[in-house]
Amino acid sequence: MLQLPTFTLTAWGLATALTLFLLVRVFLLRVYRRYPFFTFYLGANLLQTAVLGYLYQSYGFNSTTYGYRSAWATQAFVVVARGFAAAEVCYRILGKFKGVWALAMRILIACGAIVLVSTLYFGTRSYQLAVITLEMGLEAFIATWIVGLLLFARYYAVPVEPPAGMVGFGLGLLSCCRLLNDLVFERHVQAYQDVWNYVSAAAFVGILLLWNWFMRRPATQAVSEPQLNTVQVYQSLIPQVNRKLSELNQQLSQFWRTESPKP
Amino acid sequence: MAHGVAETVNSVFFFVAVATGLALAGMSFWALRGASQRRVHEHGFRALDSAPRDLDNMPQIRQSMDPADFEFARAKGGRHLETRLRGERRQVALLYLAAIRRDFEQSLRVARVIAVLSPEVSGTQEYQRIRLSMMFRWRFQMIKVRLLIGIMPQPQLIALWQMASSMAIQMEQTMAKLGERAALAAELALQSEK
């Protein structure tokens, strides 16, 4: 551990303390009941810190062999845990609206898959950076999911529980930060190597501060289960609305053509 | 870490990916800001309770747009009176345009409530509505610009407004027939009290 730069060591210590504090709050406020995967993600972070501490102690911070591979394996574990936490947030926000949830799932999975595959395909030509590319793909996938979810919620005016909104926002923002960080790292590998660690740690600490601030007191707002209509309501009304919208657009189009200056 | 790397990510991908990452971060801010506003203001589905009331003023608005009025004003009061009347008429038309937009948005809000409270939604129908509403908004803005610069015959707006209004009214009536308003109101009440 003595080989670690002071700033990295400080950031790790701070992140660990904040994660522990947050985890305690999560249990005290019983948030873990509604957000088990998010709780698991926080626990995974603590576990990763412990494992990394051991690896760096044993193999050194700049190891390129076993220690390096093992360190990245733990990172994959944490990113996957974050992916599950993101999926959980999505379900918490939209899951009770069955129709929209099914639609959102289809669209978000398709968008996420496109982003993931594009990142993996175009991301790198270097074997050495394959792990970073994989992480970038997963981060892009998570960020797309969270942003897509928030856009869906906004479009359909779905009320968002404050904890779900804040957890989702934090996960999405963290993924965006890490994605950008990885991109810059891939671009300027040698020069950016140290800064990459700092930025990564700083982003995580920032998000942890946000979550801790938000969970300083119990959430008072909750969204109750909606009473869904029968599917016939949708089937009878929505085609009418779309037909009317189409007519309205045709009317507007006619105005435009009628009034356009003739050449 | 990553020692000996000779070849890194290409430039096009780098810039596209950075732009995408920044856009995603920006959109998450925007979308979440919307969510917090929604909690405060969005008892918004109360739009369901308000049929387009501007219909009551229809005869007066139609009268105010009658081109014969201009001829009459010019004959009786001269060019100054006609200019003043034209300016006021433009203001009326703009208000009219705002009413059209309001009725249109109200109908869209109702449609979203129906969709969100439905156990099944059709991707095709939802996509079609999004596409049509985007087209409407674009054309609407164009017409507004043309109205502002004085090349849009104002009486045509009446037909446009009637269409938007009738859509809202028709939805109201259909919903009443289906007897689903109570369920919606209950849902909305739950949301608003939370």
Explained architecture:
The complex is a heterodimer of chains A (263) and B (194). Helices cover 81% and strands 0% of the residues of chain A. Chain A is built from 9 helices and no strands. In chain A, helix 4 packs parallel to helix 6. Chain B has 194 residues and is mainly alpha-helical. Chain B starts with 10 loop residues before the first helix and ends with a helix. Chain B is built from 6 helices and no strands. Chain B has 2 domains: 1-41; 47-193, no CATH class. Residues 1-7 and 39-55 of chain B have low confidence and may be disordered. Chain B is 78% helix and 0% strand. Classes of the chains: A mainly alpha (263), B mainly alpha (194).
List the keywords.
heterodimer; A: 263 residues; mainly alpha; 2 domains; 9 helices; 0% strand; globular; B: mainly alpha; 6 helices; disordered N terminus
Record the SSE blueprint.
The complex is a heterodimer of chains A (263) and B (194).
Chain A: H1 6-28, H2 31-34, H3 36-59, H4 66-94, H5 98-122, H6 130-155, H7 162-187, H8 189-214, H9 231-259
Chain B: H1 11-41, H2 58-64, H3 67-116, H4 123-148, H5 155-178, H6 181-193
Helix pairs in contact in B: 3-4, 3-5
What's the order of the H and E elements of chain A? HHHHHHHHH
Rg for CA atoms of chain B:
24 Å
Envelope shape of chain B: flat
* Number of separate domains of chain A: 2
Structural category of chain A is mainly alpha
H/E order of the elements of chain B?
HHHHHH
* SS element count, helices of chain A: 9
Percent in helix of chain A: over 70%
CA radius of gyration of chain A? 23 Å
* Count of DSSP strands of chain B: 0
Quickly give the structural class of chain B.
mainly alpha
Give the strand tally of chain A.
Answer: 0
| Global shape of chain A | globular
Q: What is the straight-line distance between the termini of chain A?
A: 77 Å
Q: How many helical elements of chain B?
A: 6
Number of separate domains of chain B: 2
